Amino acid sequence: AQKVTQAQTEISVVEKEDVTLDCVYETRDTTYYLFWYKQPPSGELVFLIRRNSFDEQNEISGRYSWNFQKSTSSFNFTITASQVVDSAVYFCALSEAQGGYQKVTFGIGTKLQVIP
Amino acid sequence: DAGVTQSPTHLIKTRGQQVTLRCSPKSGHDTVSWYQQALGQGPQFIFQYYEEEERQRGNFPDRFSGHQFPNYSSELNVNALLLGDSALYLCASSLQNQGGETQYFGPGTRLLVL
Predict the structure, then answer these.
(1) Rounded average pLDDT over A69-84
(2) What span, in angstroms and rounded, lies between the C-alpha atoms of A5 and A74?
(3) How many whole angstroms from its chain centre is CA A19?
C-alpha cells in the first residue's frame, strides 16, 4: 500500500525566511511519481512539480526547489525568501502505475503561513 | 486553453437527498478522477474514468457513482446523502498514458449536507 506522510501540519514563518516542507512516502513499486500541489484559500489545487522515481536530480524553479532522496524516501520542498503570497496548504502526492492505471495518494497537507 | 471546470461551485443539501456534480476536463485530456476533501484533510481518491468506464475506485461506498460522456466530461452522483459527505469535491483531468500523468484540478464543488 502506498502512503504519504507530511509530519508538519502547520508552519509559520516571517516573510523573506526560507522554509522547507517535508514529505516522506512509502511504496512497494520501483516505478512511481511524486508531486507537489499548492492549495490557496480558494480551494483549487495548483500543480507545482512532478518527479519520477528514476530521476533523483534536484530541481529549482525560481524561489522553489525540491530535494528527492530515494534512500530516505523523501521529497522535500523548499521555498526561499518566502512571500505572503506563498501562504497556502501544500500537498505532497504519490502516484503508482497499477497495470497502467494511476492511483494517487495525497498527504494530509502542510499549512504554511507567511507573516509580513 | 480552458482548464478544468466544475459545477456548481457550492451546494446545500439535506440528509437522504441525492446530488450530481459535473466536471469538464482540460482541453485534450481524456481521463477524469474525482476526489473528496474533508476539512483539514488531503484529497481522497473516489474513482477514475477513462473511455466512459470506471477504471479504479477508492474506498468509497456504492452510494458514490459516476459517469463519463463521449466528450470526456464527467458526473459524480452521491445518493442517500449523509452529514459526513459534506466536503470539497475535486475533479482532476489527465491524459491517459502508462501512469504517473500529472493531474490538473478544477476549483471544486463545496457540498454541505444538513
Answers:
(1) 96
(2) 9
(3) 12
